[in-house]
Amino acid sequence: xxxxxxxxxxxxxxxERTGQWIISxxxxxxxxxxxxxxxxxxxxxxxxxxxxxxxKLIMESKQPDLTRINLSDIPGGPETFxxxxxxxxxxxxxxxxxxxxxxxxxxxxxxxxxxFCENNLTGRTEDFLAQVALTSLSGAIVVLKTCEDLLPMAExxxxxxxxxxxxxxxxxxxxxxxxxxxxxxWTEELSILDIEFFGRVIASLKLRGVKALTVASAIxxxxxxxxxxxxxxxxxxxxxLAASDDSDLRLQQxxxxxxxxxxxxxxxxxLPINFLCCLLRSxxxxxxxxxxxxxxxxxxxxxxxxxxxxxxxxxxFTYDGERLxxxxxxxxxxxxxxxxxxxxxxxxxxxxxxxxSAAVIRVAKTVDAYLGEIATCVGLSISKFNGIASLIPKGxxxxxxxxxxxxxxxxxxxxxxxxxxxxKVCSVMDALKLSYEARVHASQNKRLPVQIVLHxxxxxxxxxxxxxxxxxxxxxxxxxxxxxxxxSLARENxxxxxxxxxxxxYITDLHKTGPAAVATTSSCKGGGGPKKAKFxxxxxxxxxxxxxxxxxxxxxxxxxxxxxxxTKPRRRRFSIS
Length: 577
Hints:
3-stranded mixed beta sheet, NPH3_dom, NPH3/RPT2-like, Potassium Channel Kv1.1, Chain A, Root phototropism protein 2
């Protein structure tokens, strides 16, 4: 009912407007032109004088007196036809940049050419395009915008291509010689276009050789305008607007985002890293295609040495900042960067494991700081935490202080981990590469597993014993092997203590039972003597292994007996009492 009323209102409105400019009310109309839901009561002789299409429809009609003509498929609809009819009646109206494209298409549709009638609508609109509309960037952009609803005729008439050419030419001039402030004012002009026409302008700019930074500025402005809720808003509005994965808004955003990624400049480092990270987060959020996400990951990975912790956090958290995204994108970005640097090192005949470039060292510090930021998330598993930390080569970290800080934060945020899980978390860190301050903190840190604390303490003891300066570069492999060797000696020392304790208890029992019991025991078992000898021989072997003078640096084979003071023997490293 409502639709019929609105249709009737439009019909009466169209007839009322027509009555205001028709040539004479005394001459009754003899034809009704239907354009959609609007009807125009007009005169055949006025229309036939200008429109060859209407003339042919009347001449070729099988009806002797054609009274109704349907032109519903005319470009521009009823409003454009009304202006074309006014032109046929000689009524003045204004041609503007907003209606010239529609009038040009309508003139082509109605065959209102100069061949049929001199100074017809086709010629008038062409003159306006050439002399007014396409002489400025703003005019060309507005005309191009109106062509979005006039396809494919606007394309066939070359109006679209002419607008694109003019816009490209004007932008290239403005980029070099700005005519107004701000210098990139033209990017706002381009941003009114549909993504299809905007992409054509960008492609034309690239072919013309316009600088990649100029192209990038236009794309950034366009993305921030049409994807404002995703790219610029950090208040969680985007999550509320697109609550459903299948919503129309989410689908439109997905298609637009994928189209924007396709037209990004191929040059490296022309787009801000934060902008790329925002695009990638948006792509994850709207569930864009894997091709789109892979391309953004590749671009970020190529300039990862310039990425900040905040940039990586943009990728990691949802728009409300309350939970983590899937960290696989971050892992792939870091992995891609490391693989690229590894290829460069191999090409330069270097050892990537030991010597890393300055870029890798910067990335290592960024990743460690990033791990410290996300370590507080309760939902972060050990495998994901270690997976990101282990991507960085060992040689990229001169000290593991930042990584130790991240591990400590993780252990504090996850207090229910058992000893084995704590050791898994700490497995990505080398306790021997901690600074003195970090080792002091680690030695007093009750959250760390005992093994890490012992390593930190023992390393300090080695340094104090050797007298090596903290700032001197040491061979980590030698130090680590020395620690492992001494720890094994400590274990054997503990085993020896246990065996000595057993031996004391055994001798005590023998004394309590008396000589008769000893004789009885010996005669019954028949092998007491050999077993006792075996026990003492095994213990002597263990004592031999515990000899601290068997190491290469402590060999005493070259010491002369006369120079040794035997009155005061040296104390052994490990006591067995």
